[in-house]
C-alpha cells in the first residue's frame, strides 16, 4: 500500500488537498484537544476551513455525553459549533435503534450500560430504556438479586435490546442483568468498542471494557455503532446527505478513525500525529490502516490561509 | 479419539475403574452439588471411596472462598471433609505468588480484584496486598482519582502483581487501578478465567469477566491459576505428592475439569452428567476434551459397594 502524503509545510499540497473535499469529518480527542487541553491554532484552523466553504462534522466515539452536552465542551474550549454538526456514538446508537432496529412492543425496551449521554439520546428518539444511571442499579448484589435474576422474576420482560457503552458505574449487578437479557435473546449493541478511554494524558477503561465481559460470557459480538463501524457512517451519510467522494475523515487513530474513512470509501483520510498513533504505526507491516494524507498537527493546514 | 466408557450400572467396570486409582480429584459444583442443592447419595459415595482406601481432593476454581470458608460449605452440606483436602484457585494463586513468583521488596505487593477468599489465602502465605475488599476501593471515581491514577500519584509503587479473581464488587475505580499497574509492568495473574459462575441454577459473570477487560486493554493474557491451568496441577502434585498415573480427575466440564486431567497426564478422567456438559459435547467434532470414563451421576459409583 502507498504511504501517505505528508502535507505539513507544503502550501501547494495543502491547497490541493483542501480543494478535493466539501466535508471534513473530524475526530475530537487527539485531533482538536487532549482531554481538557485545546491544541494551539485549532479554533483558527476550523474557521479557515469553514471560510473556504467546507462543512465540518465532529465524529466522536465518546458515548458518555449527548450532543448538547458535548457541545458544551466545544463552547468551554472556545470552539464555535452547532449541535447539529456533532455526531457521537450515543446518538448513532439511538438512531440505529429507533430507525433501523425499530423494536416493537412488548419487547421494545433497551437495557443500558452507560451514562446520561446515552439516556438523553435515547429519550430524543423516544426509545424506552431501563438501567443506565438509575440509582437502583448502582449497588451491591443482594440474595434477592441472585434469586430473582436467576429465575427471571427481577427481569423486565419488555427488554429486547442491551446497549453497552462506557459506564463509569459498571458493577456486577448490571453485568448480571445484561447477561440474562442477552441469554433471553436481546439484541446486543455497543455504542463503540474502544478498549481504552483517553483522559488526563493517560488511558482508562473504554466502552469496550464494558461489553467485553458480555462477549466473553455469551460468545456473541455486539453490533458496534461507533467508529470504525459502517453503521455509524451510514447514519452520518443519511443525516448530512454527504457525497462520500468529497468527504475526508480526520483522526489520530488508525484502527478507528482512518479505518472508518477507508472502509466508508471516503474520498480521503487525514491522520494527525497529536494523538494515539504515529508514523511508525502505519509503516508497520500489520498496520490497522494507512491514511492517504498526514499532518504533524491539524493547525498545519492553516499554512494555506496565508 | 476413542469415546469414553460408560460405567453407570456396570459393577464389574466400576470396580475395575476404582482399582486403577489411589487419588480422586473432584470438582465440586455440578459434581457434588448444584449451588446449594446437594445431589443424592454424594455423602455415601465419598464414604465408599474413602472406605476403599482412596484419597479425595476437592479442586475448585471458585476463588471467593478460602479453604476454611469452603470447608464450612462442605460441613453445611453434611459432607465430612478436611481443610487439607480442599484446593481452591485462591489458594493455588497464593502459593504460586509466594513460592514460584517470589516477588521481592520493594515491588512485592499484589493488587487484588476479588473477594475475601483471595485475601485470606494471601495472608496465610504472608503475601502483602492492597485492593480486594478494602472499602476505600468500593466507590465512584472522583476528579482526584482521574488525576492521581493518570499521573501515578495515587498508585502504590510497591505493587508488582495484579491478581484478578471473581469480584462481586468490581467497579471502574478498581479496573482503572489494575490497568495502570499492568501498564507499569506488574505481573498479570488470574485465579481462573471461567467466563461464567454457576449460581441458583443459572449463570452469572465469572472470574473471567473481571480479567477480560484488562486482557482487552493491555493485549496481555494473565497466568491463570485455576483449572485447566497446569500451574494448579503442579501445585496439587507438590502438596499431595500424588502419583499422576494413579490419579483420576472427576468433573462436569470438558473445557476445565476434563482438559485439566488430560493435560496433566493423569491416569484417567471421569465425566459426570449432573453439570454443564452432556454426552453430545464430547461427541461433537470440536469437543474441548474427551473423558476416559463417564457416569450419569457420581453416586452411580456406589453400585460397586453392594
Structure report:
The structure is a homodimer of 306-residue chains. Chain A is of the alpha/beta class and 306 residues long. Chain A folds into two domains: 5-61 and 243-305, HAD superfamily/HAD-like (Rossmann fold, 3-Layer(aba) Sandwich); 90-224, HAD superfamily/HAD-like (Rossmann fold), CATH 3.40.50. Chain A is 36% helix and 20% strand. Chain A is built from eleven helices and 16 strands. In chain A, the strands form four sheets. A seven-stranded parallel β-sheet of chain A has the order 1-16-15-14-2-5-6, sandwiched between helices. At the A-B interface, α6, α7, β12 and α8 of A face α6, α7, β12 and α8 of B.
Task: Report the β-strand fraction of chain A as a percent range.
Answer: 15-25%
Main beta-sheet annotation of chain A: 7 strands, parallel
Number of strands of chain A: 16
CATH level 1 class label of the largest domain in chain A: Alpha Beta
Helicity of chain A, as a percent range: 25-40%
* Shape assignment of chain A: elongated
SS content category of chain A = alpha/beta
Terminal CA distance of chain A: 33 Å
CATH H-level superfamily title of the largest domain in chain A: HAD superfamily/HAD-like
Oligomer designation: homodimer
Report the largest inter-chain contact. Answer: A-B, 35 and 35 residues
| Number of structural units classed as domains of chain A | 2
Spatially, the strands of the biggest sheet of chain A line up as: 1-16-15-14-2-5-6
**Helix and strand succession of chain A?**
EHEEEHEHEHEHEHEHEEEHEHEHEHE
Features:
Rossmann fold, alpha/beta, 7-stranded parallel sheet, 11 helices, elongated, 20% strand, homodimer, 2 domains, 5-stranded parallel sheet, 306 residues
Amino acid at each position: 500500500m502507498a504511504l501517505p502524503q505528508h502535507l505539513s509545510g507544503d502550501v501547494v499540497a495543502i491547497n490541493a488537498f483542501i480543494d478535493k473535499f466539501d466535508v471534513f469529518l473530524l475526530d475530537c480527542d487527539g485531533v482538536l484537544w487532549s482531554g481538557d487541553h485545546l491544541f494551539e491554532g485549532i479554533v483558527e484552523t476550523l474557521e479557515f476551513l469553514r471560510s473556504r466553504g467546507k462543512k465540518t462534522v465532529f465524529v466522536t466515539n465518546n458515548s458518555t455525553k449527548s450532543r448538547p452536552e458535548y457541545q458544551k465542551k466545544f463552547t468551554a474550549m472556545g470552539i464555535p459549533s452547532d449541535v447539529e454538526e456533532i455526531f457521537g456514538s450515543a446518538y448513532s446508537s439511538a438512531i440505529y435503534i429507533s430507525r433501523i432496529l425499530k423494536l416493537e412492543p412488548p419487547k421494545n425496551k433497551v437495557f443500558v450500560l452507560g451514562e446520561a449521554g446515552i439516556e438523553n439520546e435515547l429519550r430524543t428518539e423516544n426509545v424506552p430504556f431501563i438501567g443506565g444511571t438509575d440509582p437502583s442499579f448502582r449497588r451491591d448484589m443482594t440474595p434477592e438479586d441472585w434469586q430473582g435474576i436467576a429465575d427471571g422474576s427481577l427481569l423486565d420482560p419488555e427488554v429486547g435490546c442491551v446497549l453497552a457503552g462506557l459506564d463509569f458505574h459498571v458493577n456486577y449487578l448490571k453485568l448480571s442483568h445484561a447477561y440474562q437479557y442477552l441469554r433471553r435473546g436481546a439484541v446486543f449493541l455497543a455504542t463503540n468498542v474502544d478498549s481504552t478511554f483517553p483522559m488526563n494524558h493517560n488511558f482508562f477503561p473504554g466502552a469496550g471494557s464494558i461489553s467485553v465481559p458480555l462477549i466473553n460470557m455469551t460468545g456473541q459480538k455486539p453490533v458496534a455503532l461507533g467508529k470504525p463501524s459502517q453503521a455509524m457512517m451510514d447514519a452520518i451519510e443519511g443525516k448530512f446527505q454527504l457525497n462520500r467522494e468529497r468527504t475526508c475523515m480526520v483522526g489520530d487513530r488508525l484502527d478507528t478513525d482512518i479505518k472508518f474513512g477507508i472502509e466508508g470509501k471516503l474520498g480521503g483520510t487525514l491522520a494527525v500525529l497529536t494523538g494515539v498513533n504515529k508514523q511508525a504505526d502505519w509503516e508497520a507491516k500489520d498496520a490497522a490502516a494507512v491514511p492517504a494524507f498526514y499532518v504533524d498537527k491539524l493547525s498545519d493546514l492553516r499554512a494555506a490561509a496565508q
